[in-house]
Structures are given as C-alpha cells and as structure tokens.
Structure to design on (410 residues):
C-alpha cells in the first residue's frame, strides 16, 4: 500500500518534546493509530502511576531500585530526574523496534532530547501550548497538579519553551488540534523523504 | 485563519524539479489552488507557446532578442539552455513576491536549482515518475514529443533523475497523485515549521 508516511526497512527515530499539558500524548496516539508501523517508545519511570495510566503503555513503571539497577547495567540511552522522579529511555527497546522497521516517537524531556540527537541524529520536534494561560488551564483540568506543584510545572514549562525555541529542529503551536496534527504528521512525512532514506529504499517504491 | 501551511510576513522559496511528464505542473497547480498565498513563479522562455498554454501563466514567452536583452541587464537569477531554447528566472519577480509574503515554488531545471540553493538557500525538491516506462507513456500522451525529440527527452530525464538522487534535499515518486500531493505539501509544511521561520513569526501565532 502506498502511503505518504512510508514503512522503511529500517525505522526512523523522532523526538517530541514540549511542556506537560501541551498535547504531546494526543498527537502521538493519533499518529500511531493512523499508521500501525509508527510506535511511541515507552519510557521507564519511577514516578507513581496516575489514574487512567496503563503499565507498559504509558510508561514502564518501576521501583527506584530496579531503575538504578538498569542504570548500572548501562541499559539507558538517556535518563533525567524531574520533580524527584527518574525517567529513562531503554537502548535495547529502541534499537529492536527500529530494526524491525518501526518508526519510533520518543516523547522525552528537552535534556534527554539533546543526547538522543547527539547519539542517533534524530530530528527534534517541539510542541508548545498557545500560551502559558492555556497551559495552566490544561494542567488544572488534569486535577493532579495543584499549588506548589503547579508553580514548579509552570516554571519548568518556561524553561522548556526557551530550550525548544533555541535548540529544536521543528517547532509548532498546538492551538487547534487538527492543524497541530497535520503539522506533526507533515514533519515526519518530510523527514522520511529526505535524500538518504529515499535512496536506501528506492528499490521497493 | 489557522493553517498547517502558514502565511508568513516574508515568503519562503522552494525549488521543484523533475523530468518533464513527472507531474510537476499538476502538483503545483493543486497547491496554489488550496493555498492562495502560495504561487508558482512564472519563468521566461524563448520556446514557442504550446496549444493550451497561456502567456504569463505557464511562462512569459519572449523572443530571443528580448531574452538576451534581459540577460544583459542582469535580470535573471539563473538561466538554462535546453533543447535549443532559453529559460530564465527573473530576480525582481521573485523578490517582489517574497516581500509581499507569498511562498514561491520555482519549477526549474536541475542546473538552475543548484544556483538558487547557493544564492538563496531554498530547499530542493525532486519528483520522479515511477519508472522511465511511465514517463515515456506520459510524454507520448502529450503528443508534442516524438521520434528524436522523445529520445532526447528520455536521455535528459535519466540525467535529471541522477542529479535528483544525488543532490536534492527531498525526493519522492509520483505514482499515485493523492500520495504524491500529500508528500509535496508535507515538505512545505515541515520546512515552514523549522526553527528560524517560526521564531520570526512567533508574535502573530
């Protein structure tokens, strides 16, 4: 089947970052539903599972001991400590999926993103909320962030948006979901038609 | 109005190349119809007008004398001689449209394309027919290319495809028009969300 988002013999890696509440999960869920050969990479974290989250789908929720054991074994491509919890991207999981031909979206923090670009050359995509006010509203809606935690998250959002604006390859605003989704998908489609990947796979087109 | 293909204060330039009969005109016509602030740049040429072509729309058809006068005045960004006819891209026309905020597609030959990237940093997009056989069929359908001229055009197509595969930024195959159009549009959408243009225009988002 012909598709503007081609399945290639070796998958490609994309990094998506942006403040919590900016719509990353919605965008990625929609993309993976539309294209079965695009997957969201599932990170490891020591933070407690939230209502509605699913073990092994949203994250691999592990204890701090297990996480530190993995760090010792050099299992992680990148790790980050955020609001007292650890997050990490498993090397083996990523390489396994790419070799099977799946394109992978890594939804990770701005700090981990730089490391992934450095090591694996993945393009960095940043999605912003239309304004900090909107972000505040979206975070309140979740019900899990209040008082001091909310302030911390807003501060973090400002830092992340500065990083995005200065260091990411692509940036867009999630104001209307339809538009944001089309931009997000377009970035992947365009990246998969850059010269090198096309030549690799020219034979099956 | 929000759009995945944003109008920016200063337009952006894109180069589209590919063998004659590969579908360039169809793709660009559709894009300019969907987005009124995207225009096809109209080149100058000394080749005779074909049935169905419109003066000032398909090309500015001019005499060899007028063309050479323009060359003398340094009016052209690039010129190329092809099958005995001259083709040229007017500097003034391009800069005028970009300053008005129109995004411009330059449908030009592979040789002119390199010059435009060098001078103005425009991304180079290459569209191929699915095979030389298909190209042959499409060219025959036009009725204007026969015998020796057809051989020349096929030879030229092979040269152009080699150039595209080795030097262009983006490549895609026009097999199914719907898919090809989505890829073409995606490349523009993605390019307009690269870091620099986004920051320039962040204030009106």
């Amino acid at each position: 089947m012909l598709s503007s988002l081609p399945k290639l013999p070796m998958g490609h890696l994309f990094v998506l970052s942006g403040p919590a509440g900016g719509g990353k999960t919605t965008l990625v869920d929609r993309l993976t539903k539309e294209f079965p050969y695009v997957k969201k990479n599932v990170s490891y974290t020591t933070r407690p599972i939230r209502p509605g989250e699913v073990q092994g789908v949203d994250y691999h929720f592990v204890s701090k001991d297990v996480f530190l054991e993995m760090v010792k074994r050099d299992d992680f491509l990148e790790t980050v400590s955020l609001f007292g919890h650890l997050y990490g991207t498993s090397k083996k999981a990523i390489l396994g999926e790419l070799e099977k031909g799946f394109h992978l979206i890594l939804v990770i923090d701005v700090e981990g993103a730089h490391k992934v670009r450095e090591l694996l050359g993945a393009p960095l995509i940043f999605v912003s909320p239309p304004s900090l006010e909107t972000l505040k509203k979206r975070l309140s809606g979740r019900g899990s962030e209040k008082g001091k935690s909310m302030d911390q998250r807003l501060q973090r959002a400002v830092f992340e948006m500065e990083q995005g604006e200065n260091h990411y390859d692509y940036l867009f605003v999630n104001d209307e979901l339809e538009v944001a989704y089309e931009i997000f998908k377009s970035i992947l489609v365009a990246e998969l038609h850059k010269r090198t990947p096309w030549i690799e796979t020219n034979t099956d087109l």
Notes: The helical segments of chain A are 24-34, 64-72, 91-99, 110-120, 132-142, 147-167, 177-191, 195-201. The beta strands of chain A are 13-17, 38-40, 44-45, 60-61, 76-82, 85-90, 103-107, 124-128, 170-173.
